[in-house]
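Q: What would this chain look like folded?
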Amino acid sequence: MANIKPFKAIYYNPKKIKDLSKVVSPPYDVISPEEQDALHGVSPYNFTHIDFGKDMPNDDNNNNKYTRSKRIYTEWLDKEILIQDEKPCVYFYRQDYKIMGQKRSRMGFISLMELENSDETKVYPHENTHSKAIDDRLRLCESLKAYLSSIFVCYSDRNRKIEKIFNRQILLTKPMVDVEDNDKVRHKLWRLDDPKLIAEMNASLSGQHLFIADGHHRYKVAVEYRAQRLNRMENSTGQEPFNYVMTYFTNMDSTDLQIFPMHRIIKSLPGNLDFLDEFFRIDRIKKEDDLLILLAQAGRNEHAFGLYAREGIKLLRLKNRLLIDEFVKEGSQEYKNLDAVILKSFVFDRVGLKSDDIQYTKSMDEVTEAVGESRADAGFILNPVKIAQLRSIALNGERMPPKTTYFYPKLLSGLTVYKMG
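A: My prediction, written as structure tokens:
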């Protein structure tokens, strides 16, 4: 099993950093080049200076974004911009946010998670990774000897044992972090250093399957980094720092675990869509707001998509589920029934759409604006993936298509760092 372990987190020194909102950042992999520039400029101590440095024209092996990150990171530690906790802790992490005006609160915790060999692990990814992104994060890890961001893992706790520990022991105490991000999500962090309570949390996760929600590249980097270090050692105790990775855990049985759909913006359609009525029942929709309601209703019992094009808005509903096995040849039944897979097989493949012509977004407004401003030919609106689908596909050892899930809210980067050196 993958044990959890408390650790002495590195974090921003509240005596030196008075406004935490100017130094924390979104995860590096959701930051656009424009946002990267803005974050670098908002504060000389913004976390992106070490987590998401910039390439420079004269970079070489001795001077590049990884060596600069190491220099800045070391400098911040020396100047006590970043400090280390005195005791090993587990860090409870609550995010308060709103969805369509409704208040929600997702609770989780940050700790170390033990890494295991591939034939022993019960940690299951659900998305494919890209070698370029892994190489980038691995070089940063090797340079700093630290994990800057947590991977995001889901566990099952229907009896809410861990949440009860939080409510009884932590909730009414003052948080060590309380900051609001640009999306109006409020992030709070508390310490827990009680060995008995941490042991109870570990026991509640014992033997469980754990599912990676976000941070597939970071997890792959941690596994690769551990393998490299083990290969250079004659004997290992299993307790070396590289045998663990900083991880955020949250309960997949909670209604506050939100998965947003990832919509598809089609910049240029290589063919027309006249064939759609062969496979789909097509309803014309007058209002954008009606589309999301009707799409959600249809998605309860059938496979449905919204189509936003210059000639209007349509709701597409697959006529016959039996068509799926005929047109989707690869994967388990759970994989074949993913809306993203069906959309690709029945629509995108038939018109010869290339991946470079697809832009992904969680925002329907981005879809409508792109089509309305003639920057795109069409947009397809999807329903969100269900957590049960993610679990089934991960346990099958399969991977979903790229950009199928978007877990919300994202974890802030810069709250905790795991220092291995």
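Residues 54 and 65 are 6 Å apart (CA to CA).
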